[in-house]
Structures are given as C-alpha cells and as structure tokens.
Here is the input.
Amino acid sequence: MRGCLLDTNVISELTRTAPAPPVVAFLSGHDDLWLSTIVLHELEFGLRLLPLGQRRDRLRGALSEFIAGYGERVLTLEKMGAEWAAHFRAQAHRAGRVLDLGDALIAGTAKAHDLVLATRTVSDFESLDLDLVNPWETP
Here is the structure.
C-alpha cells in the first residue's frame, strides 16, 4: 500500500486506555504515514475543550510526543489541496450532501499528495475520488 494520511479519529484512538488492536497493528505495519495540519488543528481543538487537569495534561503530552515523531511528515494545506477540497465540497453539494470543511481539507490534502486516507468514518468520504482504508477493519 502507498502512503497514508491519518484522519483525526485514527490518532484519537491511540489516546484510549486500550486502543483497538487492529488500529495499533495498522500503524505498526506501515512506515509511510502522514499527518495534516488540519488534523493537528482538530486534535488541538479537542484538547482545548477538555477541562484543565491531569487528563488534559496527559493527553497533551501523549499527542505532542506522537506528533513529534512525524517530523517532516506533517503536510500543510497547499494550493492543490485547497482546490481538491473545493472540488470535493462542490461535488457533495451537487449530490445533496454536506461535506464538513475539515473533512474536505483533509481529503484534498490526501488527494493532492496521492495518499490513501486512513479513517474510521469511511462513509464521510466514500463518494469522493479518493482511496480509503479503515484501520479498524484491516486484516
């Protein structure tokens, strides 16, 4: 399989006390994994919604350590990704569906960099011209 862009729900799974074994196996079995700054925004937003305290501090530390391991494999939104995101949102709109802006930007980033999008919510993206994988269902 070619490289994968990780959706927010994949990374969030790792913060659980007992992450789903298929997700852990998926991440351990792939070395060409990427993050998007849009996903980093969603993670940071989620952290800021939590009350101050030990849980928030623990999650921030764990996520910071995880993200630091990606170094140069964090993708920013560039022109081509923004154009693909607009294409995907317009396509969904014409079909009578709403594609969340964050999801569109993540999908556009994956498409612009020819990456498979790894997500649990495949149904949010399956009508798009995008390769998808669900780490919860991979063998």
About this structure: The longest strand covers residues 33-36. The chain is about 50% helix and 10% strand. The chain has a mean pLDDT of 93. The two ends are 13 Å apart (CA to CA).
